[in-house]
Amino acid sequence: MPTPYECLDATVAAVADLTPSIRRVTFHGPALGRVHPRCLDRRIKLVLPRHQGDLFEDMPRGGDWYQSWQRLDPRPALRTYTARQVRPASAEVDIDVIRHGTAGPAGRWIEQVRPGERLLLVLPVADVDGSDELGIAWRPGAAREVLIAGDATAAPAIANILASLPADATGTALVELPTSQDHYPLQAPPGIDVRVLACDGAAPGSLLEQELAAVAWPPDCPLPSRQAVEDQTVPDAPLWQEAQTDADTRHYAWLAGESTAITRIRRHLVQARGCPRQCISFMGYWRAGRAEC
User: Fold this and answer.
1) pTM for this prediction
2) Out of 3.40.50.360, 3.40.50.80, 3.40.1350.10, 1.10.275.10, which CATH number does the structure's domain 145-286 have?
3) Can you give the pLDDT at residue 291?
4) 147-156, 210-219, 258-267: which has the minimum mean pLDDT?
5) How many whole angstroms separate alpha carbon 244 and alpha carbon 155?
């Protein structure tokens, strides 16, 4: 049975610094013309080279790549990102990557990447059933009052989400970026209050927590609530949970970033603000001190 995600060949077409901390890499390749154009917060993967000039000759393409990747020795590193833009007509994909030092393979790669380099991308292809929804956690249903909050790793997804909102959407969007010099482009309907928070050395997620402590969201939830008491009995809540899109509410929250900070933010919304759990999607994109595969 065909799988929506396939491992595809790509070549780096361009590298551009959008801000001091965010670098955009544009990929090109004939296979990218098959990629589904929907972005939002869709998860995709980069297969990073093991060494300079790695052609991935031992890595299968297509939809059955994962099992073979697990058996490789050495295995190329995988990193999860959000596609900032997909242009099937020109067979191009843009990915915005946070520059965060060279301790890991992704950090070293983004500092050294140059046009002409070959990589593999794992992306959803448009000609397979289910490719329009898979890997997307932004599911607001009929809600029009939204809260969107995330650190720098979530900034590309937030930019995509804001651009997709209907003109009558209202709410708040909080985006935490590494420095005050990071002027990342964000466009939103007039009813969305967009606030950019500059870390400038603060712990990831800490400014989001401080800002949300002063935000009355949702504005009409009762305080306190029975649900807030019940939630206290689950201190280690899952680090990835998507909202129930059929929930009968006009409110919806989407939270993404460092796992421990996002978990605390979610707990604040449930306990302090009385927001129903089923109206919150929260995703631990990364955990401080722990590397991805």
Assistant:
1) 0.91
2) 3.40.50.80
3) 61
4) 210-219
5) 23
